[in-house]
Design a protein that fits this description.
mainly alpha, MetI-like fold, flat, transmembrane helix, transmembrane
Length: 267
């Protein structure tokens, strides 16, 4: 048996590297899929929550919108106000106890991560929508757009860029918080680490490895999301035309860009 700390780390990686890798893959799968579904849920809930009151609408329509918003507000407050570990226990064991539904641990994990993320994303989307200048909404209404057309064509394209950092933040949180799903026997990274640690009782060494794996996943996700945000921003300067019509009305005289040599040899 190894005697040094790094000797044990090397030994445990050799013995349980495949197990930890599979656990990390399950963690990433749960986090990515749960975040994507949660974003869709949050987008829908956020749009419905921001429906303005229409004075011309019928009483039945007003009541329907109000009741829907109250139900969605209750959903948001409930899942933001309770820990994910408790939600996992309620969903997994409650489904069998109350409704006789025998769902798999993985399905329950996807469900819990998705609806939990959806609750947080709903508030993020609502904030992103409300951050857009009200004049743009008024202009859209003035040309005859309804609420959903205004959201799709005017507000959401701008709001989505504003909330991209929070979407990335939710992904990173989910990578870490999927560890609570071990209580319903989801074999993610923490579950795999706990099982491996119990064989030789080397908890410090195995969870040191686990900590490094979690950091690599979250750091990589953070860098990729930063890169994607930069791609969404586009270039810092734009060249809208490649010809100067003032020099040649026919538009065949190339503009000098960054000192590049023209075909005639001049700059």
């Amino acid at each position: 048996m190894p005697e040094s700390f790094f000797g044990w780390v090397t030994f445990l990686l050799h013995q349980y590297g495949d197990v930890l890798l599979k656990g990390a893959c399950v963690t990433l799968l749960l986090a990515i899929v749960g975040t994507l579904i949660g974003c869709v849920i949050g987008l829908v809930v956020g749009i419905i929550q921001t429906i303005p009151e229409d004075p011309k609408a019928s009483a039945a329509k007003k009541a329907l919108v109000k009741v829907t918003q109250l139900v969605l507000n209750a959903y948001v407050e409930l899942f933001r106000g309770t820990p994910m570990i408790v939600q996992a226990m309620v969903v997994y064991y409650g489904a069998m106890s109350m409704f006789n539904i025998d769902m798999s641990p993985m399905f329950a994990g996807f469900l819990v991560v998705s609806i939990n993320t959806g609750a947080y994303m709903a508030e993020t989307v609502r904030g992103g929508i409300e951050s857009i200048d009200p004049g743009q909404r008024e202009a859209a209404v003035a040309i005859g757009m309804d609420h959903f057309q205004t959201m799709r064509c005017v507000i959401l394209p701008q709001a989505l860029r504003n909330i991209m950092p929070q979407i990335g933040n939710n992904l990173i949180i989910n990578i870490k918080d999927t560890s609570v799903l071990n209580v319903i026997s989801v074999t993610e990274l923490y579950f795999a680490s706990k099982s491996a640690a119990g064989v030789y009782y080397r908890y410090f060494e195995i969870f040191f490895i686990t900590c490094v794996i979690y950091f690599i996943m979250t750091f990589t996700a953070s860098r990729l999301l930063r890169w994607w945000e930069g791609k969404m921003d586009g270039p810092k300067d734009y060249q809208l035309v490649s010809f100067d019509p003032m020099q040649d009305p026919c538009g065949h005289f190339p503009v000098n860009v960054a000192g590049k040599k023209r075909k005639d040899g001049n700059y």
